[in-house]
Amino acid sequence: MYGPVLEKFRGNKEIDPTGLLLFVLASVIYHSPWLCDIVTEKPGHPFALIPLLNKPELLCRLRAKVSLEQGGQVSRVTGIPPHIENAIMCSKLLRLCDETLKEVKSLTITVKDAVASAYEEKAIENGQLTGERLRTMFEDYHGEVIKAIDERIKIISQNVINVEQQQDSNLDDDGAQFADGVTEDVDETPERQVQHRLYTYEGKMWHVPRNFLLPMDANLFTGWQLWIGGQPGYIIKNVVQGNEYAPQLAPVRPFRLLTRKFLPPAVRKIYSLSWDPIFRLMGKAPGINFNDDAHSSFKVGYEYLKEQVQYIFNSTKMKIDTWCVSYWSVKVQRSSILKNGTEEDKMKLPEAHKRNRRRRQHTKLHDDGREVKRRHK
Q: Is 23 inside a domain boundary?
């Protein structure tokens, strides 16, 4: 992320790159509340990949050590440079002009909606049933059914779990309220049992909170950190009154413990295609221990990956350092190995079954002479 900055100052002997990175770290810590707000408002934002934001306890300790007070090595507070402030003001003015233009263009739509609304009101007063009124009735009924199911699930969950323990677990050390859900005991390893959250919405129970999105464009090591550690500091915003929002802590368990049937359809698809193939393969490494730190377990899994897909590491054309998690998953798929892998890679593939067997293609000749290519199992 800060590579171009380091390259710019690499030739300057008066600037120490290590010192520059310390200033970058301090800046990230100081602005961490703003970074967390961005991640909360925009699920799946790249800021969610910053490892420090996924360790709330460490971040809290570091935040107490960062301030803008003079002292020590800080002789004076530099503040924001004037050109930066001017650039921000120009950006705000452009945004205001753009919003004004959009509002002017939407006037015709607003007038149209107002006329349609007035027509609907008159139709309701006269006892007429319009399509819009019928749609509204069905939506209201559907919302009431979903709400009733959610309430019933909450009641059942509260009966299963001890009330006092549930009340104690609903608050973290800082007093932040947890999102709606219950705790679940999960055997992460044969020697270790940990509690993770189950979330309730839309009449079901899920492993992730509402509107959760998997981080995009994560590199392999950052993705591995999420695979074994999850996002314990994940925060969502819950509407309390009108447009007011209250932050709620919604920790996400290690991604390797996510189960497809407990994932919403959109998350399930991305998880199955972009995350599971590469990390499930690395997790099969002999002797790997998920209780070790991320660097140690990643090293074991990476060495095993080199043995299983040698064609990737033997090629000088493949720039694996720039690959994201989803591209790694494509390259370790069975079809990719059969197409591009070495003979040793192909021999290490598991036995084909109904879901991953290559289908043969045949040509069928119609009565009118047309040829149609079809696939069969």
A: yes
φ/ψ (deg, to 5) at 274: -105, -25
The boundaries of the domain holding residue 174 are 161-361
Q: How many CB atoms lie within 10 A of CB 231?
A: 24
pLDDT digits (tens, 9 = 90+) for 206-234: 999 888 888 878 899 999 999 998 888 88
Mean pLDDT of 134-152: 67
pLDDT at residue 268, rounded to an integer: 93
Whole-number pLDDT of residue 234: 86
* Apex 262 CA angle, 257 and 264, nearest 5: 120
- pLDDT class for 15, splitting at 50, 70, 90? low
Do 82 and 177 belong to one domain?
A: no
Q: How far apart are CA 61 and CA 163, in angstroms?
A: 31
- Do 304 and 207 have their domain in common? yes
Residue with tokens 């960062």, as numbered in its chain: 66
Global confidence as pTM: 0.61
DSSP code for 219: B
Residues 183/196, Cβ–Cβ less than 8 Å: yes
Domain boundary among 77, 103, 129: 103
Q: What whole-number distance in Å separates Cα of residue 263 and Cα of residue 374?
A: 34
Spatial contact of 314 and 342, defined as CB atoms under 8 Å apart: yes
* Count of positions (residues) in the chain: 377
Q: At 57, is the pLDDT very low, low, confident or very high (cuts 50, 70, 90)?
A: confident
Q: In total, how many domains does the chain have? A: 2
Average pLDDT of the chain to the nearest whole number: 75
Calculate the alpha carbon distances from 2 to 18, 29, 84, 156 in Å.
Answer: 12, 16, 19, 50
